[in-house]
Amino acid sequence: MTRRPSVGWHVATVVESSPETPSARRLVLDVPTWPGNGAGAHLDVRLTAPDGYQATRSYSVASSGPATRVVLAVDAVPDGEISPFLVNEVRAGDQIELHGPLGRYFLWPPGDGDPDSDTGVPVQLVAGGSGVVPLYAIAARHAEVGGGELRLAYSVRTPADAFFAPELTALVGAGRLRLDWVYTRATPAGWSRDAGRVTRALLQENTIPATHRPTVYCCGPTPFVEAVAGWLLELGHAPERILTERFGGS
Amino acid sequence: MQVDGNALAGILEDGFGLDLTGSRGRCAGCSGIAVLATAVVVVTPMGTVARCAACEHVLITVVTGGGRTWIGLPGLSAIEVSAIEV
Ligand SMILES: Cc1cc2nc3c(=O)[nH]c(=O)nc-3n(C[C@H](O)[C@H](O)[C@H](O)COP(=O)(O)OP(=O)(O)OC[C@H]3O[C@@H](n4cnc5c(N)ncnc54)[C@H](O)[C@@H]3O)c2cc1C
Ligand SMILES: [Zn+2]
Question: For the segment A116-169, what is each residue's pLDDT rounded down to a tens digit?
Fold first, then answer.
């Protein structure tokens, strides 16, 4: 059993911070020692205050592959300790400490992102809010290497709250992804359905049927993931093919 | 705040040098076997507690303070490491 030497702590320099949604920003980081990462991985950000106080939070990596450019997208949680700082204060040129890449459980292809693993299995992605970050990485990687059917059901409050909207739309345009939006607060003009939360029926309507035995990746706020994972089981998906990542929140 | 075993990846990697999120563990409470990422994890200013999603038995505790980290494994009777060949 060997330790992967390159997983560890890194110093990242912020190359770019740009608005992602009204409450979130995309951070592009330059991490010279980054070993690359599988699609779906996360990392831990550690901030140290001048008095030595440290706080650590996990953020998913929107990029994948061997690059030393690492892309994050951070939503500012109201009254949060770390996320408003990353969104409102951190700017190009700043340095932050990172630990990663982490989280082999949530990688695609399954089995540590093993390139030889079966990529022909259908993949269903289910995202709530910023939970799309690792799923966007998976969709982009899947589009690159090819594979079976790929669908994303993405629940957002309003169209403006969507992360990676241009990139996701481009994947759809290229025929690489089928994308089903669920708007919980406000829809685009002329949308066929009223705004409302995901329900079991809506999930069933917008996802690959259990009979096709997809691998399902579900990520978002904890209550969202709890609800969706429960419905997926009820819809007949096998527990071992439902992969979940909970971001927190009440 | 409630999350899941994915959130333990960093602290366990720091402690043991392994990414254990995809490893199966056996719960000492119910003898059930589950992937660590599926554990119910609650993070508080006092520390972090991971419980078995099936029976709520405490599997792992993490307490940090004074520059030290204590990782307790009170409820894991076994953990898979053979699949890790990175
Ligand atoms: C594996 C993993 C990957 C993650 N990836 C991302 C990511 O890519 N982008 C991202 O923006 N966040 C991500 N998160 C969430 C992130 O780690 C933080 O929890 C979040 O940024 C809030 O931190 P904070 O210090 O600002 O809030 P805290 O000070 O920790 O919390 C303040 C309050 O906000 C609530 N809260 C905390 N987190 C959330 C949340 N996610 N949604 C709603 N309410 C919340 C808490 O219940 C608390 O009451 C991820 C979490 C995990 C476990
Ligand atoms: Zn148990």
Answer: 666 789 999 999 999 999 999 999 999 999 889 999 999 999 999 999 999 999
A81 lines ligand 1 (CB under 6 A): yes
pLDDT of residue B67: 81
Token pair in block for residue A161: 């709250």
Closest-lying ligand to the alpha carbon of A88?
Answer: 1
Question: For atom 43 of ligand 1, which residue has the closest CA?
Answer: A249
Residue A120: C-alpha distances to residues A177, A213, B9 (Å): 14, 11, 28
Indicate whether residue A42 lines ligand 1 (CB < 6 A). Answer: yes
Same domain membership, residue A91 and residue A207? no
Does position A2 have pLDDT exceeding 50, yes or no?
no
As beta bridge partners, residue B35 has B24
What's the gap in Å between the CA of A195 and the closest CA on chain B? 27
| Residue B45 vs residues A21, A40, A91: alpha-carbon distances, Å | 29, 27, 28
Say whether pLDDT at A113 is over 70.
Answer: no
Query: Is B84 domain-assigned?
Result: no
Token pair belonging to A246: 């909970």
Query: E strands within chain B?
Result: 2-4, 24-27, 33-35, 40-44, 47-51, 58-65, 68-72, 76-79
pLDDT digits (tens, 9 = 90+) for B31-55: 999 999 999 999 998 999 999 999 9
Range of the domain at B20: 2-79
How many separate domains does chain B show? 1
Residues A162 and A136: beta-carbon distance below 8 Å: no
Residue-range definition of the domain harbouring residue A162:
123-247
